[in-house]
Amino acid sequence: MHIEYFKFFYDVATCKSISKAAALSHISQSALSQQLNNMESRLGVRLFDRSNKGVELTPQGRILLKHVEVMLKSYDRMLDDIDSFKLDKTEIVIDSYYNLTNAYIPSLLFNARKKFPQYELRLNNTMIENMESNLVNHISDLGISFKEADDSSLLSSKLLEDRLVLISSSSFNVPSSISSLDLLQYPLIIMNDKMNIKRKLHLALNKKNKSFSDLNVLFMVNAMDAARTSALKDYGLTILPRMCVIDDIRKGNLKEISIDDISLEYSIYLIYTQENHKIIKNFIDYIKKESKKILI
């Protein structure tokens, strides 16, 4: 089956509309519908439920989408590698968990690029659940995560240690040190992500016969910038990785509030395959060495 079939399928699945996907692919709606019908006939399953409101993936379609996402990324990586070969350049693709990408990583890669001009570096924001499969399937070369790899075929090296910090605007009326019970007095904006901030608070409060539901949570956010902006605008307190707000703390825009009875430390890891450890060992060793110099 031609790669274009899978691209058409992916566009329809993500747009949830045949007409929108047809416009995106610059083909007619009828031609795209025919391509989808051919694909369903070849596979022997129905991929979409069609209605006047658009299209929805069937259970079989959802299974196919997971594989097609990997396939298209691998195909794009293949084209990039071929182009890099033509230019006599080696591309290194780095997946970073999206809440870490805006912190120290760009400056680290800026210095690495000067050290290794033979490499073209590409940094991707990646959800933590996709990072390991990208590495195993050679879609990316390195991963930067706040957890070690679960896949035993991957290697994990600790880059540095950081901690989650409770912050507010510099003008917000809150002491510099509080307890977990004191948190109940303040409005909170909580990051709803894979760093398990909600769970850490819940466990600490359980020891005091309280729960997360007792907190005054104004709203949950998925984006670090939304939490940071909310704190800057005096909406309330929030908890973020210190590396992501250290500049604001040093400039006096935000202030750090210690929580006496909650441990919020975590580590950042570099993840890679055994094969890449051999191929780009010098680059990996440089990233590990330079990360140790970073003060957070």
Describe the structure.
The chain is an alpha/beta fold and 296 residues long. The chain has three domains: 3-67, Orthogonal Bundle (Arc Repressor Mutant, subunit A); 77-161 and 267-291, Periplasmic binding protein-like II (D-Maltodextrin-Binding Protein, domain 2, 3-Layer(aba) Sandwich), CATH 3.40.190.10; 162-265, D-Maltodextrin-Binding Protein, domain 2 (3-Layer(aba) Sandwich), CATH 3.40.190.10. It has twelve helices and twelve strands. The protein has helices spanning 3-15, 18-25, 29-43, 59-86, 98-101, 105-115, 128-136, 197-206, 224-232, 242-251, 274-279, 281-291, and strands at 48-51, 54-57, 90-97, 119-126, 142-145, 154-169, 177-178, 187-191, 216-221, 237-241, 254-259, 265-273. Strands 3, 4, 5, 6, 7, 8, 9, 10, 11 and 12 form a ten-stranded mixed beta sheet that branches. Strands 1-2 form a two-stranded antiparallel sheet. Helix 1 crosses helix 2, helix 1 crosses helix 4 (59-86) and helix 2 (18-25) crosses helix 3 (29-43). The longest helix has 28 residues, at 59-86. The termini are far apart. The mean pLDDT is 87.
